[in-house]
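call fold(seq) -> tokens
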Amino acid sequence: MTLQQLLLGKSDCPCGKVHDCPIRHVVIKTDACRHLPKVTQAYHHILVVADTNTYAACGARVCEVLADRVCDTLIYTPEGILVPDESAIAALRARVSDRVDLILGIGSGVINDLCKFVSFDCGLPYVIVATAPSMDGYASRGAALILDGMKVTLNAAVPQAIVADVDVLAAAPMDMIRAGYGDIIGKYSCLNDWRLSREVRGEYLCEYVLQATYDEVEKTVALADGIAARSPEAIGALMEALVAVGILMAYVGNSRPASGSEHHMSHYFEIVGLTRGEPYLPHGIDVCCSAVQTALLREKLLSLDGSALLSAAFDRERYERDVRRIYGTVADEVIALQNKMGWYDTNRIPAYREKWARIREILADCPTAEQLLALVTRVGISYEDFCALYGDQKIKDGLLYAKDLKDRYTVLWMYCDLYFGGTFA
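ret:
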């Protein structure tokens, strides 16, 4: 399935939904910025948004080709990592004058999310000029932000265009390239979670989107050696896969095809890092290393006898004590989300026993931890560094409580249900 075919949408899907994606242009090629005048021809007062690093990558070229249609430029100059929080949002909103008719971001994850959210909030279109093949959110409808210290994904619009110069992408920091590859590899985990949730909770699943996402993962695996060598052709193909997955998220209206237990672990490491002032890895690197961890959970679950699964009453006192220890200043928000969902008040053990044969089939139909580890290391990602940075206790806490940051069922919920029920005792 090509990007151009995906952009056309699918109106006759067997799942019963009409899938569409209103992105007008995707340009991934050498000197892609020369296409910007045509892509943005309807707009005459463009606000350009970047940070110091992304502007250095191609900001001058963007402003050159857009010439006097650039009415203002916002360049974030953070002391450390740019965080998509309230202050960053406010800084961008303050530059959206009545004259601005288009927001154009230059960057990757954070710049894309900020522009996506503020443009949607202000009723303006936006275009993104990608500077790294680092994540799959370029084409998605969600904006990942950190508000009140919590990682949240808010509804937003897709960009009118995604423009990416493959030479700029190939020159991105290697960790960002590895992160994009890792974000794709993590789909093995999240797609398995999607299938598990359909079986356990009856969640909607589109087989067409599921298979199309698998296809992008398989194409990316075949590119690993070229990605490690910074081959422009392989990097361009990686970017296409990341955009394709974003379009598939737009098809179903949420991030389910691309985000599951491995992403919840990544969000956990980020939030805990921010609240405690501790280091954390780039998102996609955390994602693929966390996918190894969730694969280990699946193997542990597969070793169980379904007729011997135990259940116990929910220990709220222990739960709140653990959440406050782990999440600190944002613990109240985490607890409030889970109180709203009410999933801790639901006993899923009978459903696990009843459907154990089918659950086993699903869990087994995912690469093993050993297989995923081989894929992770092919591009130079160090799983050992991941384990050393976070340590056994932080990883154990994540396996039990990373799920509490989100309202989505994954293998982490099954593991938690059985862990606190006493099955692993």
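DSSP finds 20 helices and eight strands in the chain.
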